[in-house]
Amino acid sequence: MKFKFSLKVHTQIFIAMVLGVLVGVIFGGFTGVLMPIADIFVRALRMMIVPLVFSSLVMGVVNLGNIRDLGKVGVRAFGYYLGTTVLAVVLGLVLVNVIHPGLGGNSNLLSHSVQADVIHRGDSFSMVDIFTQIVPENIVESMVKGEMLPLIFFSLLVGSALNLIGKKGAGFKSFVDGLNEVMLRITQWVMLLAPVGVFALMATLVGRTGFAALKPLAFYFVVVLCGLALHLGGTLSCFLLAVKVSPKRFFQAMVPALATAFTTSSSLATLPVTMDCLERRVGISNKISSFVAPLGATVTMDGTALFEVVAAVFIAQVYGFDLTIMQQVVIGLTATLGSISAAGVPSAGLVTMVIILRSVNLPIEGIGLILAVDRILDMFRTVVNVYGDACGAAFIACLEGEKLDALS
Question: Per residue in 8-43, pLDDT tens?
């Protein structure tokens, strides 16, 4: 008799994360030898982003068939994503004002130097860019740079045009459909490497930073984590319950994507895994997932928005600034728009923090207060970003009449 022992992918990933932490603690800086493995895994995910987003969005629009349907799904998607981001911002502002993590702050914390590239990138950015840069001057250049908003805009135009020209675009439509299938298959291959990649990522991160950096900012760290947990377990669960989807079962179905989000700190790098989970484990049609998931991964980041408002008010509290209600409203609005423009890559929220601080005349040097723990918090807020996108796909799928009986 043969004994067959096998573990599900999400179980393998969880075990890999735990082992990675243990190896990082035990061997410390020596885990740097694993960095090439971690880099290969992340690069393998990122190499699929542009072709996957383009092909999935184009086919998502084509599969909708009717431009009016695209409008309906699009309005619902934007409504959901804007609504959850606003709720995340409000929750963050409430928590940071009730708990006051920055009161009694020590000015010695300012010894942390603010990275020059963050300041430089913040100087070159304005809120107007969010809208003007949606339309690409050169789509090939935008693809090379990984600029997602121009790519999404172009993909939606291509999909809409294919619907309008009908049979004349059959050849190109077939090519894009084939490209989409190829990218999804490659995603499955890459996921076979996920446990090894996750192990290497966790081991090198813990080995390099350890846990000592959390001590000076433990209060702030806990407030952000509480906010993220409440948004994930409370706000987003309410949307699932509203369409009769079990939050517990949905969370379990999304574990591979959430584990990948946690270790890569990139919602875009996690996108292939997110779409795979939505279609194969949740049961959402490609028609919905291929349109809503890439859109959500680019234009909404609930966890980032929540983190930004907490961080801004925390910095104000440490510096002794008493923000008015209107100033906090400005912070909330700026964080909402800033989360739209933030790239789905590690620590992208730090770039938009410059804009938020300037919006209420807070010192930019305050970013140095949060640098010590930002990399770890980035992992948690990326989980919320990805989970929010996935909940949006499930919510909209149910509104469109799809039945997710396995999760009810």
Answer: 666 787 788 788 888 888 887 788 888 888 888 878
Task: For residue 156, give the H/E element and its range.
Answer: helix 148-165
C-alpha 202/C-alpha 16 separation (Å) is 8
What's residue 241's pLDDT?
A: 93
H or E element that contains 373: helix 371-399
Rounded to whole angstroms, the Cα distance separating 200 from 38 reads: 5
Cβ neighbour number for residue 121 with a 10 Å cutoff: 15
**What is the distance, to the nearest Å, from the Cα of residue 53 to the centroid of all Cα atoms in its chain?**
15
CATH superfamily of 9-21+31-407: Sodium:dicarboxylate symporter (1.10.3860.10)
User: Could you write out the DSSP letters of every residue in 334-364?
Assistant: HHHHHHHHS-SSTTTHHHHHHHHHHHTT--G
Cα separation, 178 vs 231, whole angstroms = 38
Residue among 266, 263, 285, 264 nearest 275 (CA): 285
Q: Hey, what are 16's tokens?
A: 């890999």
Closest-CA residue to 302 (of 146, 49, 92, 129): 92
DSSP 61-100: HHHH-SHHHHHHHHHHHHHHHHHHHHHHHHHHHHHHHHH-
Cα separation values, 391 from 246, 283, 286, 297, Å: 11, 13, 15, 12
Provide, rounded to the nearest whole percent, the portion of the chain with pLDDT above 70. 78
